[in-house]
User: What shape does this take?
Amino acid sequence: MGMQNVGIDKISRRDFLQKGLVFGAGARGLAAGYAAVPDVFAKAVYSAKGAGVTNDKVLVMIQLGGGNDGLQTVIPIGDPKYRDLRPTLGKEADAALPIDKDHGLHQNLKGIKSLYDKGKVAIVQGVGYPTPSFSHFDSIRVWETGDPTRRQQDGWLGKTIEKNYDSAGHPLVGCATGTTSTPGMLRDLQATLTVINDQASFKFQGNSDNVDKVMGTLYTGTPGIYGALFDTAMSTVRDTVAQLKTSAAKYVPKATYSDNQKLVFSSKNQLAAALQLAAELIVTGTGVKVLHVTLGGFDTHYTEQTRHGDLMAYLDAAVSAFHQDLTAYGMADRVLIATWSEFGRRPQENASGGTDHGTAAPVFLIGDPVKGGLYGQGPNLAKLDTQQNVSFNVDFRSVYQEILTGHLGLDGRDVLGSSFDAIPFIRAVAS
Amino acid sequence: MQQPQASSRPARRFHRRTVVVGAGAAAGGLALSRVLGLHVPGLDRLAFGDPTVAPVVNTKDWISPLDRPEAQIAQLLRRATFGMTNAQYDLAVSDGFKNTVDKLIETPAAMPKDLAGADAASQDKPLNVVNLQSWWLDQMLSTPTPFAERMTYFWHGHFTSDFRKVGAQTPYIYWQNLTWRKNALGNFRTMLYQVTTDPGMLRYLDLGQSTGKAPNENYSRELMELFTMGVGTFSEDDVRAGAKALAGWREPLTQAMVDAQIARAQQQGRTPPKSLAADPVKTGVFEAARGYKGAVTFLGVTKPWDTNAVLDRIMQQDSVAPYITRKVLREFVMQDPPDAYVERIAAGWKKSGYDLRSLMRDVFMSPEFLQPAAYRSLVKSPTEVMVHIARALEAPQLARNIAQSGSGMGQALFDPPEVGGWPSNASLVSSNNVLTRVNFVVTTLGGMQKLPAFGNAHQTHTDGIVSEQTAQLLNAATDDQTRWLILLASPEFQLK
Assistant: This one.
């Protein structure tokens, strides 16, 4: 286990935080209109490590945990085989929202459909990797590390942060919201990361200023294999508490986020709250670059039609509010939303009105930076593999490559190990 | 490094719900660390990388006290139970390590008192989940058989189910907890059958839905991947064949569930199905007509199967003993047990006919359990840390507070985040989780009218082995509330 002490002058940064944020004119590379960003953050976040990293883009990854059924999300409405394979689930074809003569989005993706119509949604079909794993955990690890050979431990987003951004003392560069533990994609012991489950309670209880100070002392120079991890976590807590005090005061949501949608069975979902906090962190200029949120419950082995339909509605409402909020704040052009799921599901419906673990599935890229449309090839239901699954035609790292280069302006080889043919779903920016 | 900036004014009065912390901080320095008899890790363990390169690598390690009998006992109690009161610690120290292991392992699980109304849970009267969680936490806090309880918790994280999918409109998730406890220290093969036919499990992994005609693969896969053999030890064809071979189970109905269904039907003006009747059992019901007829090839053998034959075939696989043993060693000894260690313990376990008492005795009596590498090599889970806090503070009334605090730390009982169970060790250490643990200590201390004397708590609960900073803060503290806060919120206390 690697360990480190953060190598920056923490005292001066804390003094800075405690005195309150003094807003500068914004750092080089930040266009006008960006919410006031304290110079000291902007500089450290956007220009450290890799020379010339001045990109102001933000990435929000949404995990659809459990294996989202691609065939119920982007429905092959023109393919009679789809209805043959899915006597119950196939009825969704009738209600789907057509995006062309062959494909329709699930009927509950109305907000995303309207963004698609505006050219703000790219759908990459048939995304997967060779020799797919049907294990949730194994396949999640492949997607998290970006490594089908299973040699890597760190998450590809954690590595992206470690290798490209000076996150020391800037805990919000990498951030997971609406969860308690660090998501695998962000895992990297060399990257400082914040995990915020619930913003309202993210502060010290009791005589909070004193507790804050004492904990800062208590979690210093801790020995042992977990020592640095605990110390870094606590210093991150203290920085984040200070940051949230400021950002919460500056932010009022300009869209309606609701987690009071029909309760989604089998998962504790707070995607809307998680995305609202993500919006706050973005629009208040905390220096956040990479966010990760999760919507669970996609392991639909039985009674899939209603459960999956609920999840689609949930996803649609949260993403729509998030995009609307960012748009109202004039920040939508900076933020890319990307979905991922460990695998799709078997084309043949099972006896419980559900589907078992499958392979390739579509990935959604949503936001103003996107060049909308369909990419890759849809599933060929007439030519299933020996396991009765669809074959992949886009390596998932080709999606990561475009996120890294096209959106974040990074090379990406140090993260992915080599270069992949990017799927060109990011608009070329006229500069 | 940042210097402590704690208030120079010592805390005087303790207000309910407010913890006033005053720590004289570093002023006293090392000289003070002798006041409480604390051992501070020596600087001789410091190792630096290339000093010209930032960041500085800190490899300073805890000084293992595991050559001292009382430290050996304390580690055993931290791992084999949910932490200890002073009385439990004193008794174990006087019994000695081996006798304590014997006592812990040989005492059969004490069953909790019934949870009122749980057996009669139905659509009309669903289980209250916080009551259920508190009921279990009460047992963890007060059980006379803490090791059996700790193993029940281990199996809860291994043979997972969550109340969200299993639902609160049946007693299934409550029954499951009772079944896991009854089997916690029995025979693994016997337990596996109970797990497979457990009503909560039938629902959680869909075996109750699976038929020979259209098998559902969920249970077949996880039975091999997560419960017995491990990923990569079987093929996709085995998953499909296993699904067929296991098909035919359904969930049992209770009288309360039947009554609720009939009442529902009458309310809606429907005739209730004639066949609706309560089952006399609290396990799954096998219906041969819904099963698979004929032979399939499962793990290399082609024949007609039933559930016991499937489980027997799985138990014949070489992968089972090392897979389960490694998981047990990770839970009770160290994060990455060496292969030779795993194989040695696994071989003994297999020889015992998969007896769980035999396995656990070998684990605790293995020399590796007391090696320096094992010291503070595991992070307490949220439940472990909160129950230990309540035991240290002699405060069994905290069950409900603990139940309600779990989810913010990533561990709501009966609700594991995924079928793979709970996160462990480094995965538990996030900014959110460090903050919520500290806040639990602050609010708990703030809510208590009377605290036990701090006394030797730093010895009992952290072996007197603390960091320089912890030592300084403890020594500078001027009252017991502050000492408890420092100790229970410290990184040292989060480890086991």
Notes: Confidence is low (pLDDT under 50) at residues 1-59 of chain B. The first helix of chain B runs from residue 29 to 32.
